[in-house]
Design brief:
Strand order of the largest sheet: 1-2
Protein name: Transposase-like protein
Helix content: 40-55%
Radius of gyration: 22 Å
Distance between the termini: 42 Å
Number of helices: 2
Mean pLDDT: 80
Largest sheet: 2 strands, antiparallel
Structural class: mainly alpha
Low-confidence stretches: none
Number of strands: 2
Order of helices and strands: HHEE
Oligomer: single chain
Shape: elongated
InterPro entries: IS_Transposase (IPR052183)
């Protein structure tokens, strides 16, 4: 919130972080509802892009 306050101040708009917090409380439920409506369905199967090998030492991922 303070980052947004600073960004707005750089553009000549003075806003307190508590005001930004009130905006967030008011607008986040509206945004969440809009994003949930646009959410795509997810299937039951997933593709794996990474394969990890197991050994006694910590190993990096093996890309397949």
């Amino acid at each position: 919130m303070r980052d947004l306050e600073e960004m707005m101040a750089e553009r000549g708009i003075e806003v307190d972080h508590s005001t930004v917090h009130r905006w967030m409380i008011k607008l986040l439920p509206v945004l969440e509802k809009a994003f949930r409506r646009r959410q795509r369905p997810v299937g039951n199967s997933w593709r794996m892009d990474e394969t990890y090998s197991t050994s006694s030492q910590r190993s990096p991922p093996v890309w397949g």
